[in-house]
Amino acid sequence: MFDSDETPCSKVDDGSKRKFGSLLVIGQGLLTAAVPGLSVSITRKMLGKNFENADELEVKPAYLRQIRAIGIGAAAAGIAGYAMEVVSERVADDETSPDDPDDADEATA
Fold it and tell me: Is residue 3 in some structural domain?
């Protein structure tokens, strides 16, 4: 399948993978915050596969608030991860680019 040194998605750099993952977390968080009832229905379906009468469970308003808060937190974490990745790419680009002699003259003036 793969050679010993070949990995899946090896042509995509790690920064792009992290940014994509952050965007997925942002999307999931926003969806959960906007529509907590969708998360409840998915949880009911998963519980229904292993337990009887899972359809009869009632959702309390506090649970919906908690789900919404989790979604907001996930979106905030995704935004922070994306921002950190963008900043680290800019810093890495600044460190690898040669210094411009004109910039040195402006700094001393």
Answer: no
Per-residue tokens: 12: 């995509």
Residue 20, domain extent: 14-91
> What kind and span of H or E run contains 101?
helix 101-108
Closest-CA residue to 70 (of 43, 44, 42, 34): 34
What would the 3-class secondary structure string for 31-46 be?
HHHHCHHHHHHHHHHH
Task: Please choose, from the candidates 67, 83, 80, the residue with its C-alpha nearest in 3D space to the C-alpha of residue 31.
Answer: 67
Q: What is the pTM of this model?
A: 0.70
Q: Report the chain (109 residues): mean pLDDT per 10 consecutive residues.
A: 58 83 96 93 90 88 95 97 92 73 54
Q: Is residue 77 part of a domain?
A: yes
Is 108 within the bounds of a domain? no
| Total tally of structural domains belonging to the chain | 1
